Amino acid sequence: MSRTKIIISAVFLIFAIVGVVAGVFLVQRQQDLRREAAVPGGQATIEITPTTGNFEAGEEFDVKVRFNTNGEVISGISVRLVHNSPELRLQNSQINPELLATGSWSCPVQPSSQQQGNSIFIDLACINTSTGGFTSTGTTDLVTLTFRASTVPSVNPVTMSFDNALTVITQKSTGDDTLLIPQSTGTYTISSIPTATPTTPPDNPTTTPTTTPTTPAGAGGSNPTATPTMTPTPTGSGTPKTTATPTSPAKGETTSPTLPPDVPDSGISTPLIMGAAVGSVLLLLGLLLVL
Question: What number of other Cβ atoms are within 10 A of residue 153's Cβ?
Fold first, then answer.
């Protein structure tokens, strides 16, 4: 082989080695830039709200993505959310109607879910087509995402965060990413639906009613037989009068008035005096006979 051919072969070999090294370096550099798409010195911010929550399996709940350009003029937003629970599914999404009402915003990439292993990715991209771009100094809602877990996730609580490489807020003037590296995350605990425990009614034994006699009040708690008392009905005022009911005599008989029985006299009567005198005489005769 001539010397010229050796030199040419060596030059081609050197160029091949340099090309391989440069290619590896550039690929690695591109991966580093992609991994650090959000910049430490960025002005715009993005967040998830609420950051925590407790929900039951089968219950739907909303998660909002909000952003703030902090005075920077932007032309678009790209978002990738990632969480670690395949059981948690995206049910619905709604772009902020106030943004869409301006006519300057459109979202060619609507929220959709993709699964890779046990990770779920949700992508969204919106652009502002106005010549002046969009700027804000306060927090603005971007999208409301509705989630639902039909069962308790195998990884619980569910952690949701931003993919720093694919979450970008583009500056209008330069086209550079102006998003500060997102730190916001959401942590959501999914619990099982409580099962109602049936209440067992108590046993219903057969109850034999017991009749307890009611004893009217009386002396010594006895139950004396009540003796009816006849109460005369007064006629007018004063002493009640007794009205005698006449009995019609039989034909041919003489009617004799019914007289009340004799009432004995009280005090010293004549028979008593006579008895006492006779007794005294007899007592005197007896004494004479003894003497």
Answer: 19
Distant-in-sequence, close-in-space partners of 1: CB < 8 Å, separation ≥ 6: none
Sign for the pseudo-dihedral over CA of 102, 103, 108, 112: positive
Cβ neighbors of 189 (< 8 A, separation 6 or more) are: 53, 54, 55, 156, 157, 158
Domain boundaries, the chain: 45-191
Tens-digit pLDDT profile for residues 207-237: 555 555 555 555 444 444 444 445 444 444 4
Q: Helix (H, G, I), strand (E, B), or coil: what is residue 103?
A: coil
Residue 157 CA to residue 188 CA, distance in Å, equals 5
Which of 2.30.110.10, 3.40.50.11440, 2.60.40.680, 3.40.50.261 would CATH assign to domain 45-191? 2.60.40.680
* 62, amino acid identity: D
State pTM to two decimals.
Answer: 0.56
169 close to 80: Cβ distance less than 8 angstroms: no
